[in-house]
Amino acid sequence: MADFNTSIKDQGAVSIINLKGYLDAHTAPILENNFVDLIDKNRFNIVVDFKELAYISSAGLGVFMAYIEKIRESKGDIKLSGMTEKVFNIFDLLGFPLLYEIFKSEDEAVKKFIE
Amino acid sequence: MLDNENLKVKRNLTALVEFSRVINSSLDLNFILNNVLLTCLGKFLATKGLVALKINNQLVVKAYKGIAQESIIQFPEIEVTENCNLSEKLNDYLILNNLIASEKISSSNECVGIVCLGEKLNKQTYIKDDLDFLKTILNIAASAIQNSLIVEELKLVNRELDSRIQRLSSLFELSKEFGLFSESTKVTRLLIFSLIGQFLVQKYALLRFEGNDIEVIEPKIPVEELLSNIRKYNYYKIDTSINKHQIESHYPELFSMGIEVIVPMQIQGKTKGLIILGKRINNSEYTNADIEFIFSVGSLAIISLENRRLFLEALEKQKLEEELDLAREIQRNLLPQKIPDYKSFDISAVNISSKQVGGDYYDIIELDKDDCVVAIADVSGKGVPASLLMANMQAFLQVICRQNTPLDEATGLINDLISSNTSDGRFITFFWGILNDITKTFNYVNAGHNPPLLIRNGTITKLEIGGMILGVMKTMIPYKSESIQLQTDDVLVMFTDGISEAMNRRGEEYSDERLEKLSLEVVNENADSILKKIQCEVQNFTDGANQSDDITLVIVKVK
To answer: What domains lie within chain B, and their CATH numbers?
Structure first.
């Protein structure tokens, strides 16, 4: 089974989740736990960085759908950054750019929260 | 003058070559159309113009300059023929917008679209030369436009393909994850994630049917409202997917909750649950292909869920069977392990349980050196409840035998106890008696049991004295006992209805008559042999038919 792991770092009021590897049905619960932890800690400004993510499946995308409402209700947001063309293509296919702000780099996404 | 003309031709040619180079260097339709339009406007000093392309036999404005958007919106929707002959409607539009020159964009085999241009800035009319030049430009542009249209279409096809591949890989991935050993919560969670990720949904619920119950899994829809609305319909009969329009017309309450698609989760054509999804955040409707996908994913999930349920059930059943084996072992140990030897009596007994634990019981309890209790009982019903009551009865019998209470009185006490221990209409038929080894007397009480047979000199006496069956109510009328003086060669046949009612494949019972007849025939044998012969004949009679009841048989032969 392909590997997937995440690392979380805080930058002021923004939490950044870095994804690495394959985010699919098998590994989706890992990212889910990250969101649950951050919500528990009332950290609702979240940037998810994809630059080291090789693949995402619809189950992986589902995790973003499952928590976005709660996070936005709490005046936060999930912003996405650093997607490879292949990963962006999947987001684009399913219409995610309509719902999520997607940035080239992690820094741009973080900056958007601070503005 | 001629030089001037030559210069003009040369300039035109240079412009055409440059134009050709630019528009053929790109496959971007907008870039090409923009260039065509700008070139025309520049060349003829026109202030406005539009390009309309033939798409699905309709002219659609793809680029425009100097024309207000409101006017573009009014561009007539008209079917066009192969060679783009302008209709009256279009002519009216062109006149209204002061687009005085128009020319077809024609490739070698068909008309691709039209270009319409407004007045020249210097108010001069378009002369034949102008129109010829326009025609030339558009001829050059036609193939570039056609190429870019093909590329656009290819892009669309590619995207469609990407989308299909993405769905297939989702299905493949889920089928891998929905293994037999997946926790059911994991399966439902992955199902939800995949669906909401695939379709951008925020309102959803999974329903799973368990008999008349509906289990609601991971709802993001008010549950009470959903359930009360869905129960208004024969929800378990939903066997095909229901789209937005069908929900709107057939399930208005659900539609007003924002539900846009209902897809059954089926196993072998039986609906085991429903996937309910609200509207897609991007406002597009669920297509048939989408619904097909949801159905496939749902089927994968429900099969996994059902497999797991069946697996757990099998596991549970196995555990229960092991426990029943243990219970049977315990029950077997409750029966006498060894029948004591007596001077005056030859005793033999057998108990064969039809299920793993049964409700038949017999006992032989030594009261003292000379007295011995022989008892036989049949608890109504079978299985664990019957065997529990039987164990209860056995314990009490052991205790009361130590109390030196007269048999009739003791029977009343046993009845009181059993009555207070049964609440579900269970009862026990019971027969017991005390054999005295010295006097050869037999003092017995029959509490509603099949009367044992006393066989003496070829005649049968049925031992019926006693009272009502045990466990129905507290003892109101005391039990009676009878004392019999036994003689050598007397035979006592005690049995449960498992013998007399043993059934063959034709549904006939072995019957009291057959038992009595056989008993008379075998009366000269010893106890063990009588027992074996009766047992054997009953088995022959049933001839492999399922033994429906416990069989218990106790034979006492007087020496």
So the answer is: 2-153 (3.30.450.40), 178-311 (3.30.450.40), 335-558 (3.60.40.10)
What is the 8-class DSSP label of residue B284? P
Task: Report which DSSP code applies to B79.
Answer: B
Judge whether B281 is closer than 8 Å to chain A, CB to CB. Answer: yes
Cβ distance B197 to A64 less than 8 Å, yes or no, reads yes
Structural domains for chain A: 4-114 (3.30.750.24)
Q: What is the pLDDT of residues B81-140, one digit of tens each?
A: 776 777 788 888 888 888 899 888 988 778 889 999 998 888 888 888 888 888 888 988
Q: pLDDT tens digits, residue range B54-83?
A: 888 888 899 999 888 888 888 888 777 776
**Is the pLDDT assigned to residue B284 strictly greater than 70?**
yes
Q: Which residues of B171-205 are buried (b: 16+ CB within 10 A; e: fewer)?
A: bebbbebbeeebebebbbbbbbbbbbbbbbbbbbb
DSSP B83-136: T-PPPHHHHHHHHHTT--EEEEEE-SSSEEEEEEE--BTT-PPPPHHHHHHHHH
Distance CA B62, CA B550 (A): 90
pLDDT tens-digit map of B157-167: 998 898 888 88
β pairing state of A102-103 and A77-81? parallel
Q: Is the ipTM of this complex over 0.85?
A: no
* A71-75 own/partner pairs: CB under 8 Å, 24+ apart: A71/A35, A71/A39, A71/A44, A71/A46, A74/A39, A74/A42, A74/A44, A75/A44
Start-to-end CA distance of chain B, whole Å, equals 157
Give the chain B residue whose CA is nearest to the CA of A59. Answer: B194
Q: Of chain B residues 40-79, which have a CB less than 8 A from chain A?
A: none
Can you tell me the distance from the alpha carbon of B104 to that of A95, in angstroms, rounded to the nearest whole number?
Answer: 37
Band of the pLDDT at B479, cuts 50, 70, 90?
very high
* Phi, psi of B218, rounded to the nearest 5 degrees: 50, 50
Taking the Cβ of residue B188 and every Cβ of chain A, the question of whether any pair is shorter than 8 Å is answered with no
Cα(B339)–Cα(B437) distance, integer angstroms: 14
Identify which of A66, A95, A98 has the shortest CB distance to residue B193: A66
